Amino acid sequence: MLMFVCKQGQPIRLKGFDMNHPATHAQGKPQAIARIRRQYPYNNVVMIGDGITDQEAVEATGGADIFICYGGVVERQNVASRSDWFVRSYDDLMRCLKRYKVAMVGSGAWACAAVRMVAQSTAEAAQSPASCFEPEVTMWVHEEKHSGRNLTEYINEHHENPVYLPGASLGENLIANNDLIETVRGADLIIFCAPHQFMHGICKQLAAAKVVNRGAKAISLTKGMRVRAEGPQLISQMVSRILGIDCSVLMGANIAGDIAREELSEAVIAYTSRDAGVLWQQLFQRPYFAINLLADVPGAEMCGTLKNIVAVGAGMGDGLGIGPNSKASILRQGLSEMRQFCKYISPSVRDDTFFESCGVADVIASCYGGRNRRVAEAWCQRRMAGDQLVSFDDLEKEMLNGQKLQGVLTSDEVQEILEARGWELNFPLFTTINRIIHGEVPPDMILRC
Ligand SMILES: NC(=O)C1=CN([C@@H]2O[C@H](COP(=O)(O)OP(=O)(O)OC[C@H]3O[C@@H](n4cnc5c(N)ncnc54)[C@H](O)[C@@H]3O)[C@@H](O)[C@H]2O)C=CC1
Ligand SMILES: O=C(CO)COP(=O)(O)O
After folding, report:
1. CA 100 to CA 236: how far, in whole Å?
2. Cα 398 from Cα 391, distance rounded (Å)
3. 274 Cβ partners below 8 Å, 6+ apart?
4. Bridge-partner residues for 145, per DSSP?
5. Is-contact 168 113, C-beta < 8 A?
6. Cβ(371) to ligand 2 under 6 A?
7. Catalytic residue status for 145
8. Is residue 365 lining ligand 2, measured as CB closer than 6 Å?
């Protein structure tokens, strides 16, 4: 670097060169670019400058991909004429940076707590001209009435979802829309967080409308799976297959209400493309929401799905009035069967995934604080009190005000796989929970499996 001592703004004396700086020797700039490429996962590197060595850094092997000549300080015709683009203003440069448009598909408790974080991030990023996110975020709402009016209208007026996440401000830059197609149209980053039983219909609708951008990226926050004749299909696989786009997942010990209150929580983003993982991390990470990146989509997603069955089992145990030792044995056996199921379905699932927030931490959070646990506890208490007619469907309606239980459905889906493959004996806890749900064995069998 040239170093000047300035007096009243005028350069008066050359002090010397920093001889270690890559820009002070031949081929230094291409070398610096090569170093940047090694350090970061960028696909394209753009060189911006006004000197001939800046322009030459594009021509060197491993150098930048394109050259923008900046004429805001000095205009050099020989450099400008060899540039890919010539600008005189910094604002022109900033305007051409890609800004991702974000859409959320879902508007339940977790969808709202998650989109609240996203809207915080995009609003904050908008303060910088170099932000890569559009500040406005759209959210698809499965329409219903609230106090005699459309929930969507209420959310847009009050910036709050009073049905699914009361008391949490979602942000003025969050725009609710009851039209799924219009919500997703033109989005670059699509977040899926609808209950898993609705995800196939949602994907089919989006595919039929041909509304998803070819280069769009998706992330699924949905915990659940679909069972087909050939076996299980994870939601991320469904999104990728039906919509033809990359799909990461965000999974963890994430009770929606606690995160909306900004209590410290952790999650993992599991990715197939690291670039996508880094981008999603930028969008979701908040001072109270720490994210680890993980290259294990099936492991993280199956953990998030299967722990809902374990939470139903833990709730049954609570309903029976068991103490901490017995409850811990349900959690331990549950985690062990989760791991076994993951390995049977996808042998490449990593062991360390089970020690991440999506593994043991989500088992603990859900088995102590989740909806599956709470409803299963009530169901068990009613059964033990002699009410043989009470069903999970009834209690879901009675206790959850429109929120959806995932554990009971998931238990049926997993059981279908265990039966089809003759694996029931290897999964005594999962199988017993399913039999208790269907009244084939009494609730206290949970302690004898
Ligand atoms: N609530 C939580 O704390 C967490 C939930 N999750 C997962 O996130 C996913 C979504 O759950 P939440 O956001 O909590 O939702 P929720 O269970 O709070 O709400 C249900 C949502 O489904 C919508 N809905 C009802 N009928 C529908 C239909 N026919 N088609 C489409 N949508 C319909 C409702 O309008 C509502 O938005 C689930 O897979 C859940 O396991 C994951 C982490 C935490
Ligand atoms: O997934 C969850 C926490 O991580 C929420 O679980 P519940 O659906 O049981 O509340």
Report:
1. 20
2. 11
3. 41, 293, 295
4. 150
5. yes
6. yes
7. no
8. yes
Centre of ligand 1 to C-alpha 340, Å, is: 27
Q: H-helix or E-strand containing 175?
A: strand 174-177
What region does 388 belong to: left with phi over 0, alpha with psi -120 to 50, or beta?
A: alpha
What fold is seen in the domain 100-295?
Rossmann fold (3.40.50)
- Distance between CA atoms of 263 and 280, rounded to whole angstroms? 20
Q: Classify residue 425 by its DSSP letter.
A: G
Instruction: Compute the distance between CA of residue 238 and CA of residue 243 in angstroms, rounded to an integer.
Output: 8
Q: Is the dihedral of CA 379, 425, 223, 251 positive or negative?
A: positive
Distance CA(140)–CA(104), nearest Å, equals 6
The response to whether residue 107 sits with its C-beta less than 6 Å from ligand 1 reads yes
Q: In this structure, what token pair is assigned to residue 34? A: 């090569």
Residue 296 in tokens = 């294990």
The superfamily in CATH containing domain 300-447 is N-(1-d-carboxylethyl)-l-norvaline Dehydrogenase; domain 2 (1.10.1040.10)
Q: Would the CB of 224 count as within 6 Å of ligand 2?
A: no
Helix (H, G, I), strand (E, B) or coil at 223: coil
pLDDT digit string (tens) for the chain, length 449 residues: 444 445 555 555 556 666 777 777 777 888 888 888 887 767 788 999 999 888 888 888 778 889 999 999 999 999 999 999 999 988 888 777 779 999 999 999 999 999 999 999 999 999 887 789 999 999 999 999 999 999 999 999 999 999 999 999 999 999 999 999 999 999 999 999 999 999 999 999 999 999 999 999 999 999 999 999 888 999 999 999 999 999 999 999 999 999 999 999 999 999 999 999 999 999 999 999 999 999 999 999 999 999 999 999 999 999 999 999 999 999 999 999 999 999 999 999 999 999 999 999 999 999 999 999 999 999 999 999 999 999 999 999 999 999 999 999 999 999 999 999 999 999 999 999 999 999 999 999 999 98
Assess contact for 254 and 110: CB atoms under 8 A.
Answer: yes
List the catalytic residue out of 7, 307, 327, 404: 307
Q: What residue type is 394 in one-letter code? A: D
Nearest ligand, measured from the Cα of 113: 1
Instruction: For CATH 1.10.1040.10, list the domain ranges present in the chain.
Output: 300-447
Q: Domain 19-95: give its CATH architecture.
A: 3-Layer(aba) Sandwich (3.40)
